[in-house]
Amino acid sequence: MARHRHCSHYRKIHDVPDLVRLWLLRLLVPLNAQQEFIREHCFASGILAEALGLGEWELSPSHDFEPKQARAALRKLHEDAERQLAHARAPADLTHNLRRLAGLVGLSAIDCRIVEFAVLLHSDRLLDDTADWLGSLSSPKVYHALSVLLDLPEVDIRAALSAQGILTRSGLVKVDHQMGVLRSKLDLLSSHFANRMLSVEDDPVTLLRDTVTLSTPPHLTLADFDHLAPSLNLLRPYLQQAVHGRRRGVNVFLYGPPGTGKNQLAMVIAQELGYPLFEVASEDEDGDPVDGEHRLRAFRAAQSFFTQRNALILFDEVEDVFNDGNSLFGRKSTAQTRKAWINRMLEDNPIPALWLSNSIGCLDPAFVRRFDMMIELRVPPRPQRERIVCGLCGDLLPADSIARIVAAESLAPAVIARAASVVTAIRDWLPKDEVPRAVEQLIGNTLEAQGHEPLKRIDPHRLPEFYDPAFINANVDLEAIAHGLAATRSGRLCLYGPPGTGKTAFGRWLASLLGLPLHVKRASDLLSMWVGGTEKNLAAAFLEAEQEGALLLLDEVDSFLQDRRSARASWEVTGVNEMLTQMESFPGVFIASTNLMEGLDQAALRRFDLKVEFGYLKPEQSQALFEQYCAALGIDGARGGVQSRLARLSLLTPGDFAAVARHHRFRPLLTPTAFVAALEEECALKPERQKATMGFI
């Protein structure tokens, strides 16, 4: 009685492509996988037997299964296939894609045959399962098996799959040197590569999209990176020469906080030079992340793919490779475990590469020196921020909103772009007057989430409403100093005196007069609890001001310049030293202000070109400023006989008038007497007045 003797759960296969049929028979006969296929009482796979034409023979009721006869029948099938199918071709889509890939990468005929087999092995379940009967293979046995299957000399197979071969260098097919079945030994470029090669594709680059993708056009322009002009003036011609001269080992490292425009800059540079920019994929087609090792392999593959094209390669988020270890548990990063290989790659890559990171700290010094250029991207200076905001949000925002947004010194281009994109998508659902508020809200929320200050509804750096140097009691002619600085554009001033006497306001007025951007830093902005943090913040503040050509105003400078002779900790000394170093090398206008002149480091004081004392208002200054405020607030300052009371206020400052004017908004001052009384209250709270009162008692 016939037996239904197969152990498969597959659906039945009635039509096997001729090329796959030939390979199946070569696996079974010359490579002797028939030992597993033909068992004592049955075929190991009825599905395979049916596909090869042995199904009816196996299930015939006329006789029991005879292994010897089965082997003879199988040999006959193989002999017929070698005569009839020797020129069988792969599926049309695979042949078409192989031809285009060969043109892109430069594959030989033998390379194409190997890729063809590997693709079908990874996509045809019957071929894969039949190859498993060869057992666990070493690499030499893989070369032999491929030689038999593809009817090619073994020496040619070895050469094609060697470390120097294009298949290995490109990552299209790589031999895994661990023992394993044939499919696991022939590692393809990506998990989706086989399926993609068997489908119709419009562009050969799309075959590689799990590995590299063509970058999208930028939404910023070269003008948005004017603050990087010195570096870009070197980078652009260097990349152009590298591409046309086929210069090897060209690598550029761009780093800076998230959102500062590193990707955009790479896209802009490629666009300006007229080269396609190919980005190493960070996720596969399913959206799953790709680990550092596979991204390095993808980078190496991309270097092989585009050797025949004028192109640039972008490797974003390099932390995946250089900083994916864990020092706590002793696990090294991908780069550290392959240090020699990466060094060689950085010295010999044929396509110029742009590497992007949020921090330079992820790089080992041995890697740093192998990059041709290191370019840091900080948050763009105010003129560039304004250009970017106007370009992305100009039709969404009025001038006052733009001014508030660009005043945020921590505002990165990506934050602007994202807010503009969101509001543009919903603007038809918003009342017209809500559109600017929506943009500001989104930007402010993101800044807070990043740990920065939110957008300020009132500009803290604006000048007082009644500002005039004539209302400052200084020991020098401030207007003459301003005109002198307008000519030299360089100077270091120390302004000292009681709070409210106009020191910071003078700095703002001077910046406006000189037409310079203003950078205001306070002690709270720069002091750090971490060792070296204050020094780093100071250096960054001076560098940022220098790059933007800004006037740097450092308030509460006594926090940094205390006399080193009285220092009790080393960080107090290093902070002063860093401050002195930055002051001496700063080429622009630097103003430091302090309420406490006593106790400042004497060496630091000598570094200032001019020290200006700001004092309390003179009686005539107090009277003139009083009349201006009364006129602005609608108070008749000529009546009330308050001049004598005003003259007795020897501790008045411009800041006192501003404070009284602010509380007038919610506690109106209806008479000159009320105004003077409010000024008297301000003076009564000052330490000098309290000391004098206590002494009199």
Considering DSSP H and I runs of 4 or more, what fraction of the residues is helical? 40-55%
CATH homologous superfamily placement of the largest domain? P-loop containing nucleotide triphosphate hydrolases
Assigned CATH architecture of the largest domain = 3-Layer(aba) Sandwich
DSSP strand count: 14
Any idea how many domains? 6
What fraction of the residues are assigned to beta strands by DSSP? Answer: 5-15%
| Rg computed from alpha carbons, rounded to a whole number of angstroms | 38 Å
What order do the strands of the largest sheet run in, or round the barrel if closed?
3-5-6-7-4-8
Strand count, sense and closure of the main sheet? 6 strands, mixed
Global structural class: alpha/beta
Mean pLDDT across the residues is: 85
Shape: elongated
What's the CATH topology name of the largest domain? Rossmann fold
Number of helical segments with 4 or more residues: 35
Q: What is the CATH C-level name of the largest domain?
A: Alpha Beta
Uncertain residue ranges? 1-14, 693-697
First-residue to last-residue Cα separation: 128 Å
What's this entry about, in short?
This protein has 697 residues and is an alpha/beta fold.
Q: Describe it for me?
A:
The protein is elongated, with a radius of gyration of 38 Å. The N and C termini lie far apart (128 Å). Helix content is 50%, strand content 8%. It folds into six domains: 18-84, no CATH class; 92-208; 212-323 and 338-374, P-loop containing nucleotide triphosphate hydrolases (Rossmann fold, 3-Layer(aba) Sandwich); 382-449; 469-615, P-loop containing nucleotide triphosphate hydrolases (Rossmann fold), CATH 3.40.50; 619-696, no CATH class. By secondary structure, the protein is an alpha/beta fold.
